[in-house]
Amino acid sequence: MTPFKTLTRLAFGALALWVVDASLPSDAAAQPPRRQPAVIELEEIEIEGRVQKPNAFYILNRSNLGYEVLDLRTSFVREIVESVRRDPF
Question: pTM of the predicted model, to two decimals?
Answer without folding.
Answer: 0.30
